[in-house]
Amino acid sequence: MENETQEVPKEKAQPSTKQRSPHQPSMAFVGASWIAFFTGAIAYNIGLYNAEMQLNEKGYYFTILLFGLFAAVSVQKNVRDRMEGIKVSDLYYGISWGATLIAIVLLVIGLWNASLTLSEKGFYGMAFTLSLFSAIAVQKNVRDGQINIED
């Protein structure tokens, strides 16, 4: 018998009709962003719940967290809009940056004057920072996901 070699035709991979956008975040990054956000926000609030401080002081720190989260997301949206050529007024852009900086300064002033141990002050500072940073990442992921849905 002769060695017969037959070539088996290889099937060409069909390109997917739904291609991944270069701006589409990976599921790992989306998940990590949400986990970081909830970790920071929940840890901050558990710390407030367990803190031995007056209710008005707890309310102050809680309000600063909410104010900072809103301001940080607003800055991210404004910066992204400007990068994409979407008109954003200079006034709103400035207010967003100002609000973010004011939230950070208010937290620093509050912690500076609080009768907490240094480790507690550091805990609130780090949980606040993690929450703000991850809120920006979550907003970016949501926006990138919406761009892909619209395409």
TrEMBL record:
Region annotation (Disordered) ranges: 1-24
Residue spans crossing the bilayer: 27-47, 59-79, 91-115, 121-138
Keywords linked to the UniProt accession: Membrane, Transmembrane, Transmembrane helix
Domain YiaAB two helix residues, every copy: 29-81, 92-144
Pfam family of the protein (one): YiaAB
Polar residues composition-biased segments: 14-24
NCBIfam families: PRK11383.1
Identification of the protein by name: YiaAB two helix domain-containing protein
Source organism of this protein record: Persicobacter psychrovividus
